[in-house]
Write a structure and sequence with these properties.
Blueprint: H1 6-10, H2 14-22, H3 38-45, H4 65-92, H5 107-116, H6 120-132, H7 136-166, E1 170-174, E2 180-184, H8 188-223
Antiparallel strand pairs: 1-2
Helix pairs in contact: 7-8
């Protein structure tokens, strides 16, 4: 089949276009375009706009009330989850520093806000004042004490969770064959006493560290004009 440009094709008469569509290609494996949806191609060549038919199948029309409620619950859960994430992002990374009002666009601002609740610039200014006042050792002790208390809170929470639910006199396991096997915890009483004593020790350490932290905060607050 001879090659045509678009302008040559547009200038052809209707009969010439119909005749062209009936011709076979020079390629032996090709089929005439007229053999593929001939009526549709013919109407397009005549200037008709092709129609696109969409399926009118409505999934909800065949759903049970239980399925509809399940879909509604999933949509509500997604919406609540997205709202929660948006609130968390706003809380952990606000647009402006709550102390100086600076626009927090820098990566360091976001990093320091999570730890210090101020932007990077405020932290640098505060630490400079700490150094000028000769209180750097107390400042380091304050940071380390905060970290220790945070670690102890996590450990205490894990111990309490295990005491309240994880520690049992008898455990049940499902084998690969589907059978339920029971295992008696002979060390239940000993383990419970150990964990309870551990909680008491953690509480005592927390009280001592909290008292020391209050002293450090008082020193830094009195001797440094700006608070962190």
């Amino acid at each position: 089949m001879a090659q045509f440009t678009r302008s040559q094709f547009d200038n052809m008469s209707k009969d010439e276009k119909d005749e062209l569509m009936k011709k076979k290609s020079d390629r032996p494996s090709a089929r005439p375009m007229g053999d593929i949806y001939p009526q549709t191609i013919k109407r397009i060549l005549e200037g008709e706009t092709p129609k696109i038919t969409l399926s009118m199948y409505d999934r909800e029309s065949t759903m049970t009330d239980e399925e509809k409620q399940e879909r509604l619950d999933e949509a509500t859960e997604r919406e609540n989850r997205h709202k929660l994430f948006a609130d968390l992002r706003k809380e952990t990374n606000p647009t402006f520093c709550p102390k100086c009002g600076k626009f927090m666009s820098d990566r360091l601002d976001a990093k320091f806000f999570v730890i210090r609740k101020t932007c990077y610039t405020c932290v640098i200014k505060y630490e400079r004042k700490i150094q000028d006042a000769g209180l750097w050792r107390q400042y380091e002790d304050k940071i380390m004490t905060d970290n220790k208390l945070s670690f102890l809170r996590d450990v205490k929470e894990e111990v309490e969770d295990y005491l309240n639910g994880g520690l049992k006199r008898e455990y049940k396991y499902v084998t690969e064959e589907g059978k339920i096997e029971k295992w008696t915890n002979d060390a239940y009483d000993e383990t419970k006493v150990f964990l309870e004593n551990t909680l008491k020790e953690i509480t005592t350490i927390q009280e001592d560290l909290s008292s020391y932290l209050n002293e450090l905060n008082e020193v830094l607050k009195n001797d440094v004009a700006i608070s962190a």
